[in-house]
Every structure is written in C-alpha cells, then in structure tokens.
Specification:
The protein is mainly alpha-helical and 496 residues long. It has three domains: 200 residues, Alpha Horseshoe (Serine Threonine Protein Phosphatase 5, Tetratricopeptide repeat), CATH 1.25.40.10; 120 residues; 103 residues, TonB (TolA/TonB C-terminal domain). It is 55% helix and 9% strand. The strands form three sheets. It has a three-stranded antiparallel beta sheet, with helices on one face. A two-stranded antiparallel sheet has the order 1-4. Helix 8 packs antiparallel against helix 9 and helix 10 runs antiparallel to helix 11. The radius of gyration is 25 Å and the shape is globular.
Length: 496
C-alpha cells in the first residue's frame, strides 16, 4: 500500500492547477488531525486508497479528499505507528485538497507534513522539499504571492540539496516562482529564475528538444506579462522555429507558442505605456531588454497586428485540421481569435469563433474544478479600453503628495460586447473627471457572457476608473491645468 501511496503523490506533484482563495490561516497543532478524521467509509486501508486514486484520476477532487482523509485516519490508527506511511497519506490528501480548491485545508495539511518531517530531524529528506513545494503551490493558487515566494525559495533550496543543482523536479516550481516574484514586483529576480530554468532544461534535454521548446514558450509568455514585448516576440519565434524543425509545420505543439505570440501582439498594441512614435533606441529600452535576444530595429502597429492575426489563423488551421486535437486547445484558439475580432469592433466575425469555442469546451475536462465553458463564457471579460488622456499625470508623485480615488460606474454588457445604460455610482469628488471616465468607458469591448451557446445581456457590471488627486496641501501645477483638465486619472482596474 505504501508504494501505491507514493506513486499517487509523485503523479499528482506535476499536475497542479491554480485558483483563488482567501489568505490561509496559521498551521493548526498536531491534535487537529483528530478533528478532521472522518468515519471510515471503506473497510480496509487498501480499499480507501484505491477509491482515493480512482476519484483523483477522474478529477473528482472533492471525492478524493473524502477518501484521502479516510486513508490518513487509517494511517493514524495503525499499530505500530508508521510515520512514513502517515506522511505520504498526508501529502496525497494535501494535493487533493489543493486541486479541490480548499486552500485553507491544503495549507494546514502541508504544514502538518512539514512539522512531522522536521520533528523527526530529516532535514535532508526529498519529501521535505516536496512538502514545501506543495505549500508554495497552494499559496500561489490562492494568490498569496507574498507567502508563496519564500516557500518556493525554501522548496527549491531543499530539492537542490537533496537531488542536485540541476534537478528536473524543480521545473514545475520555477515557473510558478517566477510568476509570484513578478506579482510582488520583483521582475528582475523573476527573469533570473526563467534564465536558470532554461539553462536547466538545456543541460538535461539539450537545446534541440521538445522540452526546451516548451521552456521557451514559458519564457516568452512571461516576457509578455513583464511587458517586454519585443523580447517575447523573439523568444516565441525561436520556439516556433524549433518546433517546426522537430515535429513539422502542422504539429499540435505549435498551438501554444502561436497563441502566445498573438496574445503578445494584442497586449503590445493595447498597452497605454507603449509609444510607437518613439525612436528605435527608446522602443528597445524596456525594463527587461535582453542583449542576447534583441528586438528588431523598428516595428509598426500594423506589422504587429498582422503578425498576431497570422499566428492565430495558423493555430486555428492546425487545430481544425486535426480530428484528435484536444477540445481545450480548440476552445482556446477559437476564443482568442474571437477576441481579436471583438476588439476590432467586428462582433459578427467574432461570434462563429466564440460558438466553436463553446462547442469544444463542452468536451473539455474541467479546470480547477470548473467547466471550461464557465471559465471562458461564465462572465463578461473586458478585452479593450481606451484610457482618458492624462490618466497618469500625478501617478509618479510621492505618496504623501497624492490621494488615490475611484470613479465607479455600473453598466450592462450587451450581447455584442459593448457597454450600455452606464450609471455613475461615485464621482470620486471630481464631477468633470467622472464625465470623462463615463465617455471613456464607452470605448470598452467585452467578450460577452454565453448561455446555451448564445451571447446574452449581462446587467450590473461594475467598472472602476482610479485617479490620483493632489492632496489639499499641494498646489496644482499650472501646466497640468491646461484647458480645464481634471487633476488626475489612472488606469482602470475593474469592469467585468
């Protein structure tokens, strides 16, 4: 039975999904295990574990949690006590709890495993590194990035100590570690993590391998999130070229980097901080420009848009030509192409792609315990918004000089993805700016909510436009008051 438990833990270690949850509580004392032990639904430990494994493989994570608790209860009551068996049973339970979205329980279970291992003095045990890794992934899934970063650092250090500097087992952790660092505004460290991961994959698999191409895609997607669009473009093109060389021009493996390239182009074109009228040198001066991966001398918006469209059309042709293409991939490609047309104010062209995505999503496995249809079409998703002029006028002032306020708007998203019936809920003390925010909100474009394969109206959507105003002790700049402009504006954070 112990070998079976270890096998499930090893399998689940590399199949982790993220979601949202509130902040986990402090770890409970060891005696809390008695309170969580359920009545035993199976007659033997082996039967409980077999049912746990069956439910886990079926993605019935709530059912797997129930059976996992039974396995833990059997392990706690075994005579003589078997700490090894109990640790593995707890690891399996923690994984199932995380996959079920119960991050509070998962955090507590991982903390209990860590306490057992450290209490036994087994500081060099690989399981301790995996337990810290599981805890870090739980924090990441719960969006507690401030807690995730030190947990990732501890897990990676332990795994390197136990299994070597270039241990392959670090890879699932390194990508999430970089994400967490980016979220807490430490992008330079995140860049180092991605470079290390690429070096690790090169050492283990070589530069001419499928695994190396996958790591290039991950790196390129991160560059997009870090707003280093030219670096992302270059890395993703290298990924596509490598995959064509390894698997041919029609490989399903190309879908990932092609859709990533299209997403990079879309974000590049809609990023208000990007100026296409600047010089080539200024364009290349991004926060994470990489001299090893230089961008082209200059790129026009039309060229970027054309490249993004071609990438999506190529990905769509690939999935549509493969009868065995995963439904999730079909849905992802078509919904992204629909989004592109939606942003271009062509909802009639977007609709067939959205409906194709809806149909494919009905056959896709759940993600984070939620149907793919719900993830893609359960709520309107804002795709585009033109910021009011001067929104960042005071954004760089010291915090003691400015105050952040919110203009709040409530509206209806139409089946065509536009806002109508806009109602001002709060003007943030600046009626003139609030009217400008209302006009700006009319530029927003959404992926509409779908019901039974058709776009529908959604009322009560909240749309917020932050702004910074000078505090009363600060005199406004004369130049900032030209033409009766309002004191400040900021980038919107809400709205669907």
């Amino acid at each position: 039975m112990q070998r079976l438990l270890i096998a499930v833990a090893a399998c689940a270690w590399v199949s982790v999904a993220g979601a949202q949850a509130p902040e986990p509580p402090p770890a409970p004392p060891a005696s809390a295990a008695d309170a969580m032990a359920p009545a035993l639904p199976a007659t033997t430990p082996e039967a409980a574990h077999a049912e746990f494994k069956r439910r886990f493989e079926l993605r019935d994570y709530a059912g797997a949690v129930e059976q996992g608790r039974a396995v833990v209860a059997y392990a706690e009551r075994s005579q003589p006590p078997d700490e090894e068996h109990l640790q593995v049973a707890l690891m399996n339970l923690a994984i199932a709890q995380r996959m079920a979205g119960d991050y509070l329980a998962s955090e507590a279970t991982y903390q209990r495993v860590i306490g057992l291992i450290e209490g036994a003095g087994r500081m060099a045990s690989p399981r301790l590194g995996r337990a810290y890794g599981g805890l870090a992934l739980t924090y990441h899934a719960a969006r507690r990035y401030d807690l995730a970063v030190p947990a990732f650092e501890r897990a990676i250090a332990l795994l390197r100590r136990a299994e070597g500097l270039f241990s392959e087992e670090q890879l699932p952790l390194l990508e999430k570690h970089a994400d967490a660092l980016t979220e807490i505004e430490r992008p330079e460290e995140a860049l180092k993590v991605h470079r290390y991961a690429l070096r690790l994959v090169d050492r283990r698999f070589g530069e001419q391998s499928l695994r190396y191409a996958q790591e290039l895609e991950s790196f390129g997607r991160w560059y997009t999130r870090a707003r280093a669009y030219e670096s992302s473009r270059v890395v993703l093109r290298a990924c596509v070229d490598l995959l064509v060389k390894l698997e041919g021009p029609d490989s399903l493996q190309l879908i990932g980097p092609l859709t990533a390239a299209a997403d990079n182009a879309r974000r590049w074109l809609t990023d208000p901080s990007v100026s296409f009228t600047s010089s080539p040198d200024e364009q290349n001066r991004t926060p994470f420009s990489d001299p090893v991966l230089p961008g082209p001398p200059t790129l026009s918006p039309s060229m970027i848009a054309s490249e993004g469209l071609r990438a999506l059309e190529r990905a769509t042709a690939i999935v549509d030509a493969h009868p065995d293409a995963p439904p999730a991939s079909i849905a992802a490609v078509h919904v992204q192409l629909g989004d592109l047309f939606q942003v271009r104010q062509a909802p009639e062209s977007a609709l067939p792609h959205y409906q194709r995505a809806w149909q494919a999503a009905t056959r896709a496995p759940t993600t984070d315990g939620r149907p793919v249809q719900e993830l893609l079409f359960g709520d309107p998703l804002r795709l585009h918004y033109v910021l009011p002029d001067g929104w960042d006028r005071y954004a760089t002032r010291p915090p003691e000089e400015v105050e952040r306020r919110l203009v709040e708007i409530e509206a209806t998203v139409t089946p065509q993805g536009r806002l109508q019936d806009l109602t001002l809920q709060s003007d943030a003390g600046d009626p003139k700016f609030a009217q400008r925010a209302l006009r700006a909100a009319e530029s927003a474009r959404y992926r509409p909510r779908f019901v039974d394969g058709q776009p529908v109206e959604t009322r009560g959507i909240r749309f917020t436009q932050p702004l910074y105003v000078l505090r009363e002790s600060q005199e406004p700049d004369d130049t900032a008051r030209e033409a009766g402009d309002p004191p400040s504006e900021d980038k919107p954070q809400g709205g669907g």
